[in-house]
Amino acid sequence: MSVALNHTIIHSRDNRESAAFLAHVLGLSVGAEAGPFIPVETANGVTLDFATIPAESITPQHYAFLLSEEEFDEAFGKIRASGAAYYADPHGKHPGEINHNDGGRGVYFTDPAGHGMEIITRPYGYQEDGAA
């Protein structure tokens, strides 16, 4: 049996708001409510189940999404259009910038619940074929 991540629960102040925000940025669909969860399924079949909990109970987490160059352009355009702050780094020291790590592009932003979201066009440690 091969092991694959199937789903994870993401705590939010408002599960519908957080699911809709991320789905909009990434060009995904919000699924039908399933009990206390609002699901957003990624292209590789991993479901992000947004659950509403009290705001003081939320511990900010980090979620990174690998996108194509075209998807990055679309998502980054939506982030900018929303007026959300974005950064080239996870610590917010480079506001209004993107990074070019590993030969691609990346940007960090925060979702409505305070989670650190990241979109990248190359996985960490990526090297072109034949590169040393």
From TrEMBL:
Cofactor(s) needed by this chain: Fe(2+)
Keyword Metal-binding: yes
Family annotation (PROSITE patterns): EXTRADIOL_DIOXYGENAS, VOC
Gene Ontology molecular-function annotations: dioxygenase activity; ferrous iron binding
VOC domain: residues covered: 4-122
Family of the protein in this entry: Belongs to the extradiol ring-cleavage dioxygenase family.
Pfam families noted in UniProt: Glyoxalase
Annotated organism of origin: Streptomyces subrutilus
SUPFAM superfamilies assigned: Glyoxalase/Bleomycin resistance protein/Dihydroxybiphenyl dioxygenase (SSF54593)
Alphabetized UniProt keyword annotations: Aromatic hydrocarbons catabolism, Dioxygenase, Iron, Metal-binding, Oxidoreductase
Keyword Metal-binding: yes
Protein name (record): Glyoxalase
